[in-house]
Each structure stands twice: as structure tokens, then as C-alpha cells.
Amino acid sequence: MGERRGRRGVLFLVCGPSGAGKDAVIEGVKRRLAGDPGCVFPLRVITRPAGFGDELHVAVTPAQFDRLRRRGAFALCWGSRGLNYAIPVGIESDLARGRAVVVNVSPDICPEARARYPGAVVVWVAAPADLCRRRLMARGRESLPEIDQCLQLVDEPPLDDDLEILVNDGPLDTAVDTFLRLIEERTEVPQIKRTGLPGSVLPTGP
């Protein structure tokens, strides 16, 4: 893919209900596109201990998160179920260099993200409620009441119609292929073969 010199990159905002498989789809795309700097997958900064859950992230304390936010280290940040999440400000350099940037975000932050980054593409990962429930129970992170709360978003996205629906209810490779085609279409580049650097990582010091 490579960098698109002279053209601004595209921000892909991946969201959807817990259990729809957002992380699995993103990781599948990242594996498929390994080695080309034209598409990046920044690690999220989360006030959650490292090693908790399947997602690789930059773990910080709430105090560290607040300091980083005040320093302008985040492009986007939000809270959910007692945790704080952020996307590093380094994505702005990636976008300026014409790269595609893929991030997992809350749907609540999408209006702000669209306003700040014109041309951003919202990708809603969808799956049936019973499948989401089975996936959540299998990963064992949430309690049953928390799972019920997570599934409130399954039936209908809390967003307008300006989004791309990616159904992930079958083989993971099918959803990955769909996302790859979307990246190709929205970035207006030839078929992508290899991409996927880990993206910007924030310092986690005090």
C-alpha cells in the first residue's frame, strides 16, 4: 500500500457491541497486512492492568491518564464502565502522511471524531445477540449483569445512517476480507497486500 504522499489519510473508527468481534476483526486485518507502513493500528491507552483480557494496550493508572490528557497526548478519549480509553495523538501525523489508521472506539466518541477528522469512516461490527452473548461468556471478563448491559447495543447502532455495517457472524476471514475491501475503496489505492505496523505508543512513565 505505502504512504499516499500529498493526500490525507483516512481514519477508520471501528465500533459495535461487545462480543461482536471488533478486536478479532482488527487483529485479522493487521495480520493479513503485515509490514507496510501505509496502514497503522495504534494501541489504545486504557486504565486497565496490562495482560487483562485479550487486547494488547498501553496500561496506565488513572493519574497517568489524566496527566497525559492534560499534556495533549490524546487525539480522542472517552470513558466506559469505569475505565478510561484514549487514542494517541500520533495518529494525526499518520493521517498527514496519507496513512490509513484503524482504531477501536466507543460509538459515543464518533461524532467528535468525525468533526475533528473529516472523512473518517465509521465501521459498525455487528453480530446476533446470542452469538455476542456466547463470545462474552467464553472470554469470562464480564459478569452476567455486565453482559446484559453490553448487549443493549446489539439490535441497533446508536448512530446515524452514515456508517459501514460489517457483519461478523461467520468465519472470521469473511469479515476480514470485507474490511480489507472497505479500506481499499475508501483510500482509493490498489489492492492492499501487506500492511500493519503497531502504530504510535505512548510513554507510560509517571
Detailed description of the structure:
This protein starts with 9 loop residues before the first strand and ends in a 19-residue tail after the last helix. With 206 residues, it is of the alpha/beta class. A hairpin with a 2-residue loop joins strand 5 and strand 6. The longest helix is centred in the last third of the chain and has 16 residues. It is globular. The protein folds into 2 domains: 135 residues, P-loop containing nucleotide triphosphate hydrolases (Rossmann fold), CATH 3.40.50.300; 47 residues, 2-Layer Sandwich (Guanylate Kinase phosphate binding domain), CATH 3.30.63.10. Helix 1 packs across helix 7. The protein has a 5-stranded parallel beta sheet, sandwiched between helices.
Summarize the structure.
The model is unreliable at 190-206 (pLDDT under 50). The protein has 206 residues and is α/β, with parallel strands linked by helices.
Provide the residue-averaged pLDDT: 83
Instruction: Look at the helices and sheets and give the structural class.
Output: alpha/beta
Task: Give the tally of structural domains.
Answer: 2
Question: What is the strand content?
Answer: 15-25%
Provide the descriptors you would attach to this structure in a database record:
7 helices, 206 residues, Guanylate Kinase phosphate binding domain, four-stranded mixed β-sheet, globular, disordered C terminus, five-stranded parallel β-sheet, alpha/beta, Rossmann fold
